[in-house]
Every structure is written in structure tokens, then in C-alpha cells.
From TrEMBL:
This is diguanylate cyclase. Its EC number is 2.7.7.65. Keywords: Membrane, Transmembrane, Transmembrane helix. InterPro entries: Diguanylate_Cyclase (IPR050469), GGDEF_dom (IPR000160), Nucleotide_cyclase (IPR029787), Rev_trsase/Diguanyl_cyclase (IPR043128).
Length: 383
């Protein structure tokens, strides 16, 4: 009795750990609800733990119902885990595919219990089926092997976890002795299964949690570095890039400040929704018409900035003029022409961000004084 009690307690270790992970994934999703794949993994851990508990406690007591219920829970857990990983990469299976996997596995399981009863066939069917589902998911995620460190670790743990279903099942059945259905929990196969879940399953769960943490940090960084309205860089990120460029500067560098003319009038006349549309349209022009090496940001309100690497002041002025013309050509659903003014300055050998920003800002005001919808660069004569 004591030995049986110890085995029962040890059998509960893996499902208990999975329940802890289910709670961890659920809490992580609550913190960052955009990461939907965390819910898939919370469900996967809970379902797998429920399947193990069903077998450990022999509930339901009817052997056939127990086999079908535990099989359905295990299969659903594997599908949830696989689809969670695919969902993270934007490649989730459609529900029709998931149902196809589910019925393709459950129907033979039913057959090999109620029609041609064979425990060995059911074990091979279930374990090879789980392995095939996970391998199929892994083949759609090969780009993770070339991604950041957390992605690479996740990919290889997933691949090992998927592949181990095949040799583990074969070796434990071939050399583990006969399977006694009345004492299935004491068989070498069951113990090896629990060990693989405890080691590889927990490793996979930890890798997913680490990846989720990395994704949350990436989202925070993106929110910090990106203007939510226009999708351009934020002022903070723009300044970081300027400082970086100044530290390793060997080529000329220029800055243009852009301000939408009469923007307050747009907001007052047509509402803030129309003002937001104007800002998005101007941002799209700046991003679309600039060169790939140029850096575009929204500094705040209706003010934008463009950093021109490896660019002399005259070329920066010419690009700014093209941008001004493109903005003036915008066709927006308001009864007001949208224009912008530009101030351009270049970085000298001893300049820093503040000094060049002040000169570009002063040139922007000179462009405004010229009547707006104009470009003014330093050392440029005012008529």
C-alpha cells in the first residue's frame, strides 16, 4: 500500500506542475492581453493536467469512458499548445484544421477500444499522433531558429519535445515489458511518459514563458519608440538615433523640422478626428517620400522631424522641398488646403542635438514668416 501511495503521489507531480504553469500563463495573459497565445498555453497545461488526473484517479471509473475522456483531454492540450505557438507567429490553424486533427485521432481511438480492443494500438496512435501534430507545427515555425535567442531556444525545445514522442513510445513499449491494463500507472511506459512531461514539457513551458516575457518587453519598447497615432518614431527614439549618429559621425548630417500650417484651425473647424487624419496623412507622405536611410519622427502635436544622414544642407533642403510639395498636393476630405512649413539645419563639427534643433526651429519660424507652405534653410537669404 505504501509503495502504491508513493507512486500515486509521484504521478501527481507532473499534472500539479502543469496546473501551476496554467495559472502563470493566465496571469501573464491578464497582464498583456494582446498575447493571445498565452491563453492557448494556459488551456493546454490545464487540459493535460486534467487528462493525467483522469487516469491517475480512474475517473470516470468505466475503462472505456476513461480512455476516451483522457484521450480527448490530452489531444486537446496538444492542439492548444501547437496552435498557441502558431498564433504567436500569425500562422494559427483554422478551426476546421483543428477539428480535422481532433476527429482523425479520436475516431481510431474509439475503434481500438470498442470495436477491436488494443491498448498497444491506442498508445501508438495517441503518442505518434501528438508527435505528428507538434512536428507539423514546428515545420511552420522554422524562422524561429534564426530569430532572437528566446525564439531559438523555444524552437529547439519544441522540436525535441515533438520528436521524443516517437522513440520514447517505441522503446518503452518494445523493451519495457508487457502492459498490464489493471496497473497501467506502474508500467515503464507510464513512468517514462511522466518523466518526459516533467523534463521536456516543463522546459517547453518555461521557454514559452521566457518568450512571452521577451514579447512583453518588445511591446513596451515599441510603444515607447513609436508614435501611436502615426506609426512614426517617437521623439525619444528619434533623439536616441540622433545621439547615436553624432557619436559615430564621419559624414555630413542634416535635420529638418516640419510643422503643419494652421493645424489648430483644422481641429477647431472640423474636429480632432479630422486633425488626426491630417497628421496620419502628413506622416505617410514623410515616410513614403523620404529615402530609406532617412529617419522620420513625430515630435509632438503637429510637428515632425526628419534626420538626413550623409546629406549636405543643400540636398536636405531639396528633399524638404519635395516633401512640402507632396503635402500640399494631399487630397483630404476637408474644405481646407493642408500645407506644411520646413526649417532645415546641418550639424557642424562641434554641434549637438540642442544647438542644431534650435537653428532648425528658428528656420522653421522664418518659413512661417515667409507666409507658410515654405522651406527655409540656414545661410539662406530671406527676400
Amino acid at each position: 500500500m505504501e509503495a502504491a501511495a508513493v507512486r500515486s503521489m509521484l504521478s501527481l507531480v507532473a499534472p500539479s506542475v502543469l496546473l501551476v504553469f496554467a495559472c502563470a500563463f493566465a496571469v501573464a495573459w491578464f497582464v498583456e492581453q494582446r498575447l493571445r497565445y498565452l491563453l492557448y498555453f494556459a488551456a493546454a497545461c490545464a487540459l493535460f493536467a486534467a487528462g493525467a488526473a483522469s487516469q491517475i484517479f480512474k475517473q470516470p471509473a468505466n475503462i472505456g469512458l476513461n480512455a476516451m475522456l483522457s484521450g480527448a483531454l490530452y489531444l486537446s492540450a496538444v492542439l492548444a499548445a501547437a496552435n498557441g505557438l502558431l498564433d504567436r507567429s500569425g500562422r494559427a490553424w483554422h478551426w476546421q484544421t483543428l477539428m480535422g486533427f481532433w476527429f482523425a485521432s479520436m475516431l481510431p481511438l474509439w475503434y481500438f477500444f470498442y470495436v477491436d480492443r488494443s491498448l498497444i494500438a491506442r498508445i501508438y496512435l495517441q503518442n505518434f499522433g501528438y508527435g505528428l501534430v507538434l512536428v507539423a507545427a514546428t515545420t511552420r515555425l522554422t524562422e524561429l531558429a534564426r530569430g532572437k535567442a528566446a525564439d531559438r531556444v523555444l524552437f529547439w525545445i519544441l522540436l525535441i519535445f515533438a520528436v521524443q514522442f516517437f522513440p520514447r513510445t517505441y522503446l518503452t513499449l518494445a523493451f519495457g515489458g508487457p502492459i498490464d491494463t489493471r496497473a497501467f500507472g506502474t508500467t515503464f511506459f507510464w513512468q517514462a511518459l511522466q518523466l518526459s512531461i516533467a523534463v521536456l514539457g516543463v522546459s517547453l513551458a518555461l521557454a514559452v514563458l521566457a518568450t512571452a516575457f521577451s514579447d512583453i518587453l518588445e511591446n513596451v519598447r515599441t510603444e515607447r519608440d513609436t508614435d501611436s497615432l502615426t506609426g512614426l518614431l517617437s521623439r525619444r527614439r528619434f533623439q536616441e538615433i540622433v545621439f547615436s549618429q553624432l557619436e559615430r559621425r564621419k559624414q555630413p548630417l542634416a535635420l529638418a523640422l516640419c510643422d503643419v500650417d494652421h493645424f489648430k484651425q483644422v481641429n477647431d473647424t472640423y474636429g480632432h478626428h479630422a486633425g488626426d487624419e491630417v497628421l496620419r496623412a502628413v506622416a505617410a507622405v514623410l515616410q513614403g517620400k523620404c529615402r530609406k536611410k532617412d529617419v522620420v519622427a513625430r515630435l509632438g502635436g503637429e510637428e515632425f522631424a526628419v534626420l538626413f544622414p550623409d546629406t549636405m544642407i543643400q540636398e536636405a533642403r531639396e528633399i524638404s522641398e519635395r516633401l512640402r510639395q507632396a503635402i500640399a498636393s494631399l487630397n483630404l476630405p476637408i474644405q481646407q488646403n493642408v500645407t506644411a512649413s520646413f526649417g532645415v539645419a546641418s550639424f557642424g563639427p562641434h554641434d549637438n542635438w540642442e544647438s542644431v534643433f534650435r537653428r532648425a526651429d528658428a528656420n522653421l519660424y522664418r518659413a512661417k514668416d515667409l507666409g507658410r507652405n515654405a522651406v527655409h534653410a540656414e545661410n539662406e537669404q530671406v527676400a
